[in-house]
TrEMBL record, chains A, B:
UniProt cross-references to PANTHER family, sorted A to Z: ACYL-COA DEHYDROGENASE, BROAD-SPECIFICITY LINEAR ACYL-COA DEHYDROGENASE FADE5
Broadest EC class assigned to this enzyme: oxidoreductase
Protein name, as recorded: 3-methylmercaptopropionyl-CoA dehydrogenase
Domain Acyl-CoA dehydrogenase/oxidase N-terminal: 46-157
Keywords: FAD, Flavoprotein, Oxidoreductase
Protein species of origin: Glaciecola punicea ACAM 611
Length: 585, 585
């Protein structure tokens, strides 16, 4: 079985030669940051991902999590790896420095996130959700709650969860019924059942901090009557230590397709003590603080599994000797040539490579905008917010849809061995499959993109995104590739602008095609930029590999956009005309 | 969890109104056969699939197979279901009547095969391979072997297996090393290790008949030195009963992604007694007798899982209440509308429906040609052989690639619940994933299509297929749809004819795109035909559903063909230019 190795050379190329990280940090005023420091962080992160959590991944899938006597245990080694992660400060990378966070730029943290996702997706999830919880508590909780919880969530001494979904309320949170009853001491008694709670319980930390959506008595119906509460597993004593058990517990853990080493819990709240976070009835807005970030993080999960699958497939293709090349024997001393010599195998590998490296570029572009949003106080902050809002559903939806394709290719390259668990390739396909579903299904992402992000304010988010891309394209040196990129951007802009005026039903019918169309075009632009930047690279493999992969992408992948484009401006009548009864006979 | 129901109305429509089964049987001289008899067979088959094996499917996945003390056990109920299957004569549907087979036409058996695959793919596999083994023994074995084994394989008293793959010999069988040493008594001592042997051992029958590829001493190297042997688990006594244990055993069973209730065995042959089937060194040709059939059967597995997934998704979409329709409340008395009212959910369901029913039409068209091949002794037999040879890799590759897409859509319609095993949707995606791999990976199918089937004899197989389709299109009554179908067929024919002259390397680079292009075009033609035929249907749902689904297919699925077509006649240089070393950095 192939052992994961962090793709350091590609990170270096993208950050230094494509994104010009030093100029970027200078421009946004990220003091003390430079590309060398990021390199050092990546080197250490790679060690942790490769040596500590990657070796636990395969066994973790086989053993899974267990619920015994109301407590969840994770597979062997998982808790110890978490202690090492926390001990080395990884959990605090992005945290507020007032609470001992390291306050690193996103461009430094996102490569680490990718590595963690590649190495062991199940293991990564709980730490990812803690980072999301930190954002919500830092921004919306009272000063008292921040003082009690934030430092320990940032360090990772405690973990955090998001409790949104209920059996009857998934995509539609307006239907949630968990109750929050005000108590005389200013706290709330939380009662209800939540499902699909990642890291709802585990054996890693002395406390777990649940962020729970619930309804106050007489709250308005629908999403305008939802409030957010902080509900710890253990109530704190006067020294702010986990003490008395709160009235909540794990009902069961789900038996899932993948991410089996991540406990997905049914949580029962039986009058548990909770504290309001943010204002009454504004809970969904608080949750949305975490949403852009969490959705992007789920996109990153797609990227992480793509990289792991590509590595596994490539190493097997180089080793596996079967048949001869159509060009005649290439390894005459062996009984057969490696399957790397089969054009169709190379097509599969290049598809994986073009998507993986393209999505990585997209992730770092997004990280760059997050940096701008974080550091800049001028007009650039608002611009970056617009861009991030527009790119978020594309990252979440496209990166995870593509990951299912890429990880399935990984299986295919192995032939029948890809179907056997010990090789690890099918686990990647099973693990990454969740990413199309949670944090809003990809259908929800598509609806968000076309129904809200594209059309709100007459297209401001789109325009900000197009302007940013247009400016970054203009520095390309190859005129032909520059023109290609400009044409793609222009076409995307034109069609998007038309879609703003489509009615809601037709837009909903075009939503997924628009998301995919946008993803393919965006990756095309990024590939042309990368090919251009690679010409100056000192790394001969980058210099050869980027233009060749760009050519492949433009020729063999980008044409897919046409199939999506062809239905964008048409009516949804073909979707709606058939009666429900005539769907089956 | 949705319980499978056989799609009887669609079978009836396709067989009676689209394929005109009575005329077909008359034309080929299938005496005693008519559509009513086929209906009766289907009704009984549906009962078995729905009531006997479908209820075992979910638990079978959880429990899986076990190897203890060298013997394999299958999940509870599996063996009893097999006894019922055999007792009711299902195993003998296609068998030679000289050995108590029922000798049914393929058009009668193929709907049953689909149902078995839908209801419980794991359970189905062993019976499918027995049918393949019957074909090889009937056609190639000596009269003595036929007398000893055939009746019991046809009835199902014993099952059969195919032993091809070895650790170092998968796609490339020329590398296989299992030895067959001639013994004084005319038998052979078989020694070697085989992997991926479906049904290599189980607790269903008193004997298992292995068909094993091996090499004779001094056999030529490569595929011209491979012979086929019949190697029973138990040697027969003079009453032709299973008696003494042969020198073979199960080394282990694979831990797989899916089809967990089907035992996939590592088989060790330690000088096991075997009998030559067919001529020495002509083993691969004997195996190819089963290959068209087995590859088509694997395509049928794709279809079966598509149907099961579509049914599950449709029933959930009708029940699940989340959010309101973009048109405003459709179920005002409920707290939300069913997700059937969401255009994007309908897009997913229509994609499943369009593929499932399109592939079903393809499967019955193939069955019709198998009937012609079986019953006709005149020029039609040779024509049907050409058509079957051409369509086989398309059926195997396209039907199974599409099944992975369709079953993944099934998960997506369920949202997070699709990822939870108890709903059964993710099992379908895991189970069907094997079908892209075995009986020749889909890359091998694509290479077979473009490299052998298309170009051999200057395109005879292509021409026979185009002629057959052209003739069947001509009976369409709607002129516009007729012209659309003719245009598609013409385009396919033209591009295919050009591809015959492309050099081997470029053809290998275009292979998968050509297979997919062909699949999309073929389904387009079949959809236009079905929409035309449905206009006269007495079933109002068929009358409404087929044209609406045809419109959907033409508008939202068929455009994919363009992305594949655009690379067909281009060079493979973009695939081959990058050095192996520059695939990673």
């Amino acid at each position: 079985m192939h052992q994961y190795q962090a793709p350091m050379a590609d990170f270096q190329f993208l950050l230094k030669e494509w994104l010009n990280l030093d100029s970027h940090y200078l421009a946004i005023g990220a003091q003390g940051m430079d590309a060398e420091l990021v390199s050092e962080v990546m080197t250490q992160g790679a060690k942790f991902a490769e040596q500590v959590i990657a070796p636990l991944n395969r066994e973790g899938d086989e053993i899974g999590c267990k619920l015994e006597n109301g407590a969840v245990s994770t597979p062997p080694g998982f808790a110890a790896a978490y202690q090492e992660y926390v001990g080395n400060g990884w959990n605090a990378m992005l945290g507020n420095p007032d609470f001992d966070g390291q306050d690193l730029p996103y461009t430094a943290a996102v490569p680490i996130h990718e590595m963690l996702n590649s190495a062991n997706l199940s293991w990564r999830l709980t730490t990812m959700l803690t980072e999301s919880a930190v954002l919500a508590v830092d921004k919306h909780a009272s000063e008292a709650l921040r003082q009690q919880y934030l430092a320990k969530l940032i360090s990772g001494e405690w973990t955090g969860t998001m409790n949104l979904t209920e059996p009857q309320a998934g995509s539609d949170l307006s239907l949630l019924t968990t109750k929050a009853e005000p108590q005389d001491d200013g706290t709330y008694a939380i009662t209800g059942n939540k499902i699909f709670i990642t890291g709802g319980d585990h054996d890693w930390t002395s406390n777990i901090v649940h962020l729970v959506l619930a309804r106050l008595p007489k709250a308005p119906e629908g999403v305008k009557g939802i409030s957010l509460f902080l509900v710890p597993k253990f109530l704190l004593n006067e020294q702010n230590e986990a003490a008395e058990k709160n009235k909540l517990g794990v009902g069961s853990i789900e038996k899932k397709m993948g991410i089996k080493a991540s406990p997905t819990c049914v949580m029962n709240f039986d009058g548990a003590k909770g504290w309001l976070v943010g204002e009454e009835n504004k809970g969904l807005a608080c949750m949305f603080t975490m949403m852009n970030d969490a959705r992007f993080q789920v996109g990153m999960q797609g990227l992480g599994t793509c990289e792991a699958s590509f590595q596994g497939a490539l190493s097997y293709a180089k080793d596996r000797l079967q048949s001869r090349s159509p060009k005649g024997p290439q390894q005459p001393d062996a009984k057969a040539d490696s399957i790397m010599h089969q054009p169709d195998v190379r097509r599969m590998l290049l598809t994986q490579k073009a998507f993986t490296e393209g999505l990585r570029a997209l992730s770092l572009l997004y990280a760059q905008q997050m940096d701008i949003e974080k550091y800049c106080k001028d007009y650039r902050k608002a611009q970056a917010q617009q861009i991030l809002a527009f790119l978020t559903p594309i990252c979440k939806g496209f990166m995870t849809d593509i990951a299912t394709e890429v990880t399935n290719i990984g299986i295919q390259v192995y032939g029948g061995h890809g179907y056997v668990r010990e090789w690890g390739m099918e686990q990647l396909a099973r693990d990454t499959r969740i990413a199309q579903l949670y944090e809003g299904t990809n259908g929800i992402q598509a609806a968000d993109l076309i129904g809200r992000k594209l059309s709100r304010d007459g297209g401001l988010m789109l325009n900000a995104t197009v302007e940013m891309l247009s400016a970054s394209i203009n520095s390309m040196s190859n005129k032909k590739q520059l023109e290609q990129a400009q044409m793609l951007l222009h076409e995307w802009h034109q069609i998007s602008a038309k879609l703003i005026h489509v009615d809601a039903l037709d837009a909903a019918g075009a939503a997924t095609d628009y998301l995919h169309y946008s993803g393919y075009v965006l990756l095309g632009i990024l590939w042309l930029q990368m090919a251009d930047a690679a010409k100056k690279s000192a790394n001969p493999k980058i210099k050869a590999g980027k233009p060749a992969t760009c050519e492949f992408y433009i020729k063999r992948i980008l044409p897919r956009k046409e199939a999506h484009r062809s239905v964008l401006l048409s009516s949804a009548s073909d979707l709606m005309s058939l009666s429900d009864e005539a769907f089956d006979y």
